[in-house]
Amino acid sequence: MVGDWNGDGRDSVGVFNPWNAIWYLRNSNTRGAADYGPIQYGSAHWTPVVGDWNSDANDSIGVVDPAGRWYLRNSLSQGAPDIAPFQYGGAHWNAFFVPGTTAGPDLSGGTDNSQGGTGSLSGVAATLTLSAPAMVTTPSAAWL
Ligand SMILES: [Ca+2]
Ligand SMILES: [Ca+2]
Questions:
Q1: Backbone phi, then psi, for 119, in 5-degree steps?
Q2: Residues with Cβ within 5 Å of ion ligand 2?
Q3: Domain region containing 87
Q4: What's the gap in Å between 39 CA and the centre of ligand 1?
Q5: Residue 83 Cα, ligand 2 centroid: separation in angstroms?
Q6: How many domains does the chain have?
Q7: From the CA of 12, which ligand is nearest?
Q8: Could you tell me if 129 and 122 are in contact, meaning their C-beta atoms sit under 8 angstroms apart?
């Protein structure tokens, strides 16, 4: 993701490790150590979001859980959400299908399969989840 973490008017890079929900944010678009982080915020496989939630010119972090609840924080640090968590959207609507991630074991569970369109989405997610590890390892092995 990108955001203006320090309020200087320029967006710069940030990454979120979907396996452990740890953020690393940098104030310049260059290599180097994180200016903010590691910051543990959220849970594994939640969706990271960034924005200026409080209009102070600094972008900050947020996460959306698999049920569609948003947890927004005004500072680049660990801690409780600054805005009371709220529901916006349905379960799994915000999920990124990042290679190698799962949005939770419930995606392939029996309950989603009984909900029409949600069932087909679950099928796609399950396929991506299962194929991702092979996609990560096979190309590098072929190129060596
Ligand atoms: Ca900036
Ligand atoms: Ca802000």
A1: -65, -40
A2: 52, 54, 56, 58
A3: 1-92
A4: 18
A5: 12
A6: 2
A7: 1
A8: no
